[in-house]
């Protein structure tokens, strides 16, 4: 892949643009699919919850109808009269049977209505004769419910009538005397469980979803085939969490076995409708959208690739022509001029190339002229070396004459001056050993100590391991000169000048510090600004020594030129306390040829 990318700009641009476009397209496709999947699930939940509410509304109407019927029968005069009399009145019993039949025959969900007297010698009255019933077992199994709640809905049980065996859910409530408010009987209204189950089977939840009716203890009252009544929901869905609130939803299990559980609490009875939708129902619905998304993304990818290749070909064709011109051109001949076919960025590049070829010809002529002038300057410099040699010979003669006459101070001063000048010229070399730079400073200090006896002390602290390293020459002497002339000589009494070097890793920091008169804050800021602006004027000299070969600006400029902008001078000064000037360089380990 790396070799293929390195072949041409066309291949690089094609691959990079295709990737930069395809990644968002693929990401958008995946994002759309996940959004659709989430919307499908939310839609299924919303639809399922609406279905449960519709079934709940139907069951609530059924329960409300039973409630109203029970209230009507409890207060009916014939029922009250029949239960209050101690004698068995067959005529009243027949009248009540006709009443129950009239009220119940038009309601297919009512399996039976029964009125029982508290007196053992008085038979029960119902519009259907019950031959066998589990009610006694239900009553003995849940005595606390039967005794605690005046109105109570039983779990599913069955009774046998002349029409056969039938599963029912019974609501029982006591009948009290309307005059003296004591119990005189019991009313039982039974609902046909199969009618409720048929509505749950027609719920139409997504996929293979099922709808169940549970009582307050999560026992199944009604549901589709395969779910036995009176069994706990946990028997079919182990570990299912408790229902919180009146309605809501949660996930049961994870991954491939995940199902969505919806629940709705009926307000007037302790029944709960529960819908369970397998997650695979969502995936089946999303398969079509996934296929459609894949097709759309594939078509978009093909279109993008074709469009990018055509676009890249159009853009890189002029560049390829320019490359061929440059590859086939001879370095000894002028560069050819290319035709400009457009005014876009590529056209501007070709125009710049044509201008550059013309400029190269002019620069070649200038270089040739510059080389000729340089040779001439070298000849002039060679001739000028006669004067330094004459100066060295003259100073040497003066030195020996002073020694012959016994004037050692003059001899030392002339000898130091000779060495000082010889190092300054140094045959045109720019770098020297640190030891040579320190020796040059020593010569200068020796000359000044003869001129200004007992005016200053000088100390140089240079680690021995740094002496053989090489640095740009004539950096320390101008700093010593400024410290002496503008710091020490202007103060009263004797001063001191200290030169030291500190190494840190590859870098060496040189510090020249004096205890002279120093500078005010305003003058220090002015000095820093002028040095940073490279004005070439040393404010410490007040322009009275502008002819000096080396000033602070000169040193600062040379440091930045040879060592970079970070190597410039750093100046600190306190008026009346002295001045400290420092700079940091990376020395040369070996001698420069």
Automatic annotation (TrEMBL):
<feature type="transmembrane region" description="Helical">
    <location>
        <begin position="13"/>
        <end position="36"/>
    </location>
</feature>
<feature type="transmembrane region" description="Helical">
    <location>
        <begin position="288"/>
        <end position="312"/>
    </location>
</feature>
<dbReference type="Pfam" id="PF02518">
    <property type="entry name" value="HATPase_c"/>
</dbReference>
<dbReference type="InterPro" id="IPR003594">
    <property type="entry name" value="HATPase_dom"/>
</dbReference>
<protein>
    <submittedName>
        <fullName>Sensor histidine kinase</fullName>
    </submittedName>
</protein>
<keyword id="KW-1133">Transmembrane helix</keyword>
<dbReference type="Pfam" id="PF02743">
    <property type="entry name" value="dCache_1"/>
</dbReference>
<feature type="domain" description="HAMP">
    <location>
        <begin position="313"/>
        <end position="365"/>
    </location>
</feature>
<dbReference type="Pfam" id="PF06580">
    <property type="entry name" value="His_kinase"/>
</dbReference>
<dbReference type="InterPro" id="IPR010559">
    <property type="entry name" value="Sig_transdc_His_kin_internal"/>
</dbReference>
<keyword id="KW-0808">Transferase</keyword>
<dbReference type="InterPro" id="IPR050640">
    <property type="entry name" value="Bact_2-comp_sensor_kinase"/>
</dbReference>
<keyword id="KW-0418">Kinase</keyword>
<dbReference type="GO" id="GO:0016301">
    <property type="term" value="F:kinase activity"/>
</dbReference>
<keyword id="KW-1003">Cell membrane</keyword>
<keyword id="KW-0597">Phosphoprotein</keyword>
<dbReference type="InterPro" id="IPR033479">
    <property type="entry name" value="dCache_1"/>
</dbReference>
<dbReference type="InterPro" id="IPR036890">
    <property type="entry name" value="HATPase_C_sf"/>
</dbReference>
<dbReference type="InterPro" id="IPR003660">
    <property type="entry name" value="HAMP_dom"/>
</dbReference>
<keyword id="KW-0812">Transmembrane</keyword>
<keyword id="KW-0472">Membrane</keyword>
């Amino acid at each position: 892949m790396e070799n293929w990318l390195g072949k041409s700009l066309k291949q690089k641009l094609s691959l990079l643009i295709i990737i930069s476009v395809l990644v968002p397209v693929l990401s958008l496709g995946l994002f759309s699919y996940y959004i659709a999947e989430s919307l499908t699930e939310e839609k299924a939940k919303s639809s399922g919850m609406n279905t449960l509410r519709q079934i709940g509304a139907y069951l609530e109407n059924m329960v409300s109808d039973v409630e109203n019927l029970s209230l009507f029968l409890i207060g009916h005069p014939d029922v009250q009269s029949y239960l209050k009399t101690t004698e068995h009145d067959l005529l009243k019993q027949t009248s009540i049977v006709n009443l129950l039949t009239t009220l119940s025959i038009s309601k297919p969900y009512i399996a039976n209505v029964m009125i029982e007297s508290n007196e053992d010698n008085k038979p029960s009255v119902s519009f259907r004769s019950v031959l066998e019933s589990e009610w006694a077992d239900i009553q003995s199994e849940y005595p606390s419910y039967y005794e605690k709640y005046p109105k109570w809905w039983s779990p599913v049980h069955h009774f046998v009538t002349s029409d056969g065996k039938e599963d029912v859910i019974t609501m029982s409530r006591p009948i009290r005397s309307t005059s003296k408010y004591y119990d005189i009987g019991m009313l039982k209204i039974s609902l046909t469980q199969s009618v409720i189950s048929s509505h749950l089977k027609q719920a139409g939840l997504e996929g293979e979803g099922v709808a169940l009716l549970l009582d307050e203890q999560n026992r199944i009252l009604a549901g589709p085939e395969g779910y036995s009544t009176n069994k706990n929901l946990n028997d079919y869905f182990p570990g299912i969490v408790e229902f919180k609130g009146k309605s809501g939803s949660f996930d049961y299990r994870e991954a491939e076995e995940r199902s969505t559980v919806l629940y709705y609490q009926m307000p007037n009875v302790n029944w709960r409708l529960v819908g369970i939708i397998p997650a695979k129902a969502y995936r089946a619905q999303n398969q079509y959208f996934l296929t459609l998304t894949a097709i759309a993304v594939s078509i978009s990818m093909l279109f993008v690739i074709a469009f990018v290749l055509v676009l890249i070909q159009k853009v890189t064709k002029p560049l390829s022509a320019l490359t061929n011109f440059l590859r086939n051109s001879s370095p000894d001949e002028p560069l050819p001029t290319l035709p400009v076919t457009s005014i876009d960025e590529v056209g501007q590049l070709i125009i710049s190339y044509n201008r550059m070829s013309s400029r190269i010809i002019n620069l070649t002529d200038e270089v040739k002229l510059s080389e000729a002038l340089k040779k001439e300057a070298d000849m002039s410099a060679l001739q000028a070396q006669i004067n330094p040699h004459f100066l060295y010979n003259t100073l040497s003669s003066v030195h020996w004459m002073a020694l012959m006459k016994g004037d050692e101070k003059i001899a030392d001063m002339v000898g130091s001056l000779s060495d000082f000048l010889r190092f300054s010229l140094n045959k045109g070399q720019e770098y020297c050993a640190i030891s040579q730079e320190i020796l040059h400073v020593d010569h200068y200090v020796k000359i000044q100590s003869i001129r200004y006896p007992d005016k200053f002390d000088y100390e140089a602290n240079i680690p021995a391991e740094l002496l053989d390293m090489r640095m740009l020459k004539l950096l320390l002497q101008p700093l010593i000169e400024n410290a002496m002339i503008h710091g020490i000589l202007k103060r009263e009494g004797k001063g001191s000048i200290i030169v030291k070097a500190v190494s840190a890793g590859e870098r060496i920091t040189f510090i020249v510090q004096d205890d002279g008169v120093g500078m005010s804050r305003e003058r220090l800021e002015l000095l820093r600004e002028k040095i940073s602006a490279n004005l070439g004027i040393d404010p410490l000299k007040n322009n009275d020594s502008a002819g000096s070969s080396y000033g602070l600006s000169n040193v600062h400029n040379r440091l930045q030129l040879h060592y970079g902008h970070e190597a410039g001078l750093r100046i600190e000064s306190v008026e009346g306390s002295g001045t400290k000037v420092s700079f940091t360089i990376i020395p040369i380990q070996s001698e420069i040829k």
